[in-house]
Amino acid sequence: MKLHPVLAAVTQRIRERSAPTRSAYLDRIAQAAARERGADRMGCANVAHAFAGIPPNDKFRVVAERAPNIAIVNSYNDMLSAHAPYGSYPPLIKEEAHRLGANAQVAAGVPAMCDGVTQGTAGMELSLFSRDVIAMATAVGLSHDVFDGALLLGICDKIVPGLLIGALQFGHLPMVFVPGGPMPSGLSNTEKSKVRELAAQGLVGRKELLDAEEKAYHTQGTCTFYGTANSNQMLMEAMGLHVPGAAFVQPQDDLRGELTREAVRTVLANLKSRRYTPIGRLVDERSIVNAMAALLATGGSTNHLIHWVAVARAAGMVIDWDDFDRLSSVVPLLARVYPNGVADVNAFQDAGGPGYVIRELLDAGLMHDDALTVREGGLREYTRIPHWGEGRKGLAWADAGASGDDSILRPAGQPFSRTGGLKLLTGNLGRSVIKVSAVPEDRHVIEAPARIFDSQDDLLAAFKAGELERDVVCVVRWQGPRANGMPELHKLTPPLAVLQGKGFRVALVTDGRMSGASGKVPAAIHVSPEAEAGGALALLRDGDIVRLDAPAGRLEALVDGEEWSRREPARMTDAQREHNAHGVGRELFGGMRRNALEAERGACTWL
């Protein structure tokens, strides 16, 4: 299938814009690849330290016999359901590596925090920056520089982007991402949301709410809604960084272990002495565009409009929200998965999952089929679904076939929508994005008086006091990277949904983020520049009419131009800054807050 002209044009725009930085990046990884392997290049004391902790036979294998040495970078902890399965992975990986004449070492453990735990608390103000901490931790582990490749064990919101950003600093190494899979379905996401809305109205108590939440989040694996964590997994498939079809096999499925063994076999197949496909060459403008297309086609998380900008920059490429917006105009919405529908990711997988989506996009010319992947067969391998082979003696793959449920997945020729689920908004309030795929069509345009809040707690208090029982655009400012680390504001979804359910025309405008699970209420998010960096949200006043027009791509304060130009911006108070600087470790992130770039530049703290 011929590549769609808009996809080709966006790719070329990225290629041309990024030429100097991408060329410099490729030169650096070529220089790194040209060196001798670590155990031959380093001094004897360095080598002795590197391998002192492994059994003598393994030491002899790596040093004397020059066997491949694979790094394991692991986000394991047993507090978080998605990462708990990773505790058993390193022994399995080492066993498979030994069987194949190689060695594997746990090079680093990286932190993994859960936004579901910290949502609405001060800890959420560390969430976005944890991505860059994970990237740095990955780099620290790999900086020992004695590895021939790496396996990256991570799954959730900031963990996968952080691992990928860190890994790209060692772009000369072949690497494969190893997922853990979603938990089995519990209480449906729709039922869970209903209970949350009842709780917001005071119609059920803490006991009933906790019971519902525990039935939804009930065992090991990722949450089953299509938020940032599961969007990560879709994007890893679209970029060819997984074993094909590995994303949504549950941790409890015995196929999971064999897929992990296959990841070992895959990374070894990509070594310099074999089919050399290092991650820095694999992640190019084609794979970045493929990830963007997959995100749009599935109505994925808005967080990736920040994270994938940062990922691209880590590989010497520059993308922006205009690129997403242009792609969204031609990439159809093929999936309805909560919060963009009622199905969860397990139903999505049963209906055809990533393999179905990738095949439909390839056949429609909406993905690059010549992009490199960790597999020799290229991206077409990712249109197939893994299963046990005959006699359970290894893996086999089958074509995704037709959609197993056309209420969840549809072909590119008969999509849920002819355009993707994300829109760029511009106007006198700045640049922002909105996820329209889950918003009712009659709510795509909202025009109402603004109510200004300086925190999400202030909005919640106003809701409880009955002050928002009207058409209103709730503006929550001082929520950007420099102000307080750009927390998600998902706690605002239930009360705003209650107001919308009462028939009021309601929208949220903020320089903060919303959860990957949000979408029912129209929300212009990531407003850039943020208020703390001189953005126009600081000029808004209570009662100003704000118009959010998703079809037209506009976000505007309908204020007389002369008056607008005369206004003095509001300022964060010293008390607000002091509050944001202390508690739950926020003291250690002051430098990140000061140095963070705007959301459209990835909120990067390392550039």
Fold and architecture overview:
Residues 408-603 form the Dihydroxy-acid/6-phosphogluconate dehydratase C-terminal domain. Keywords: 4Fe-4S, Carbohydrate metabolism, Gluconate utilization, Iron, Iron-sulfur, Lyase, Metal-binding. Belongs to the IlvD/Edd family. There is one protein chain. The protein has helices at residues 5-33, 38-41, 44-51, 56-63, 89-99, 115-118, 127-142, 159-167, 189-200, 206-216, 228-238, 255-269, 279-282, 285-298, 304-314, 321-328, 345-351, 353-363, 456-464, 481-484, 493-501, 561-566, 574-580, 590-595; strands at 69-74, 103-109, 149-153, 175-178, 384-388, 395-399, 422-425, 431-435, 445-453, 472-476, 506-510, 523-528, 545-549, 554-557. By secondary structure, the chain is α/β, with parallel strands linked by helices. The protein folds into 3 domains: 5-34 and 68-184 and 219-399, no CATH class; 189-218, no CATH class; 422-601, IlvD/EDD C-terminal domain-like (Glucose Oxidase, domain 1), CATH 3.50.30.80. The protein has an 8-stranded mixed beta sheet with strand order 7-8-12-11-10-9-13-14. Strands 2-1-3-4 form a 4-stranded parallel beta sheet, sandwiched between helices. It has a two-stranded antiparallel ribbon with strand order 5-6. Strand 9, helix 19 and strand 10 form a beta-alpha-beta unit. Helix 7 runs parallel beside helix 8 and helix 11 crosses helix 14. The longest helix has 29 residues, at 5-33. 57% of the residues are buried.
Helix and strand topology:
Elements: H1 5-33, H2 38-41, H3 44-51, H4 56-63, E1 69-74, H5 89-99, E2 103-109, H6 115-118, H7 127-142, E3 149-153, H8 159-167, E4 175-178, H9 189-200, H10 206-216, H11 228-238, H12 255-269, H13 279-282, H14 285-298, H15 304-314, H16 321-328, H17 345-351, H18 353-363, E5 384-388, E6 395-399, E7 422-425, E8 431-435, E9 445-453, H19 456-464, E10 472-476, H20 481-484, H21 493-501, E11 506-510, E12 523-528, E13 545-549, E14 554-557, H22 561-566, H23 574-580, H24 590-595
Parallel strand pairs: 1-2, 1-3, 3-4, 9-10, 10-11, 11-12
Antiparallel strand pairs: 5-6, 7-8, 8-12, 9-13, 13-14
Helix pairs in contact: 5-12, 7-8, 8-15, 9-10, 9-21, 11-14
